[in-house]
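Hypothesis: this fold can be encoded by more than one sequence.
Test: take the structure tokens below, design a sequence, compare later.
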């Protein structure tokens, strides 16, 4: 299969290893990987802030860039939800609505693509360590992604998965939310990170690097012990 990657701008700028790990995994599974260099931000920041006209300008470019893709795989549940769910709202009743529907139908979050589209759970990974998993809000609540990443982690040789009590609680990032309400955001991060530390794990894993940026920021300043954050793809790429 020819797989077209949608790599969110913050991953491209701050966490390129996540994108490279996804490429490694897909090529290991004998798929052809395509990365359209014309892709940009999905438009989520202006969309979430109520600037829908500005969001449409950005999103319309993405509709064109990914128009001919056979299947689109997103490295983020949050940005993937823009393609899958929110473009349908953004372009409802507009000329681009049909293009938004086509993009939605062929877009998958990375773990959902592996498990539910390809039927793959064991990608041949080996990773030594105790791990807990954080459910990002958009991936969990908008895309319904819950079991797929856990199935993939359970198949990793040497990995011990330990569930935290607050797995489904928001980390407090939420993009512009963390900027507008820093005190509330920090308090939410405290609840999440305390739950992570209580598990005694070495790593916290998620399929959303934006959440991990928030979590690692808090842990690095307040955790009594070292807990590292990793994107799911970074774990699965290990052999």
């Amino acid at each position: 299969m020819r797989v077209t990657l949608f790599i969110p701008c913050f991953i491209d700028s701050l966490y390129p290893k996540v994108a490279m790990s996804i490429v490694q995994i897909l090529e290991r599974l004998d798929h052809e990987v395509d990365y359209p260099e014309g892709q940009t931000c999905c438009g989520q920041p202006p969309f979430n802030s109520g600037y829908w006209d500005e969001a449409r300008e950005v999103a319309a470019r993405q509709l064109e860039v990914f128009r001919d893709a056979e299947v689109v795989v997103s490295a983020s549940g949050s940005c993937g939800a823009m393609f899958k769910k929110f473009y349908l709202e953004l372009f409802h009743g507009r000329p681009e609505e049909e293009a938004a529907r086509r993009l939605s139908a062929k877009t998958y979050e990375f773990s959902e693509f592996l498990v539910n589209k390809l039927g793959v759970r064991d990608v041949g990974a080996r990773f030594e360590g105790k791990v807990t998993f954080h459910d990002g809000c958009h991936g969990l609540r908008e895309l319904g992604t819950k079991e797929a990443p856990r199935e993939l982690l359970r198949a990793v040789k040497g990995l011990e998965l330990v569930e935290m009590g607050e797995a489904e609680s928001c980390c407090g990032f939420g993009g512009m939310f963390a900027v507008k309400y820093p005190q509330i955001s920090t308090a939410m991060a405290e609840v999440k990170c305390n739950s992570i530390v209580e598990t005694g794990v070495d790593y916290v894993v998620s399929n959303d690097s934006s959440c991990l940026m928030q979590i690692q920021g808090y842990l690095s300043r307040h955790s009594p012990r070292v807990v590292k954050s990793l994107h799911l793809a970074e774990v699965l790429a290990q052999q």
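Strands lie at 2-6, 32-34, 71-74, 107-109, 126-133, 157-161, 203-206, 228-231. The chain has two domains: 2-116, 121-236.
Hypothesis status: open.
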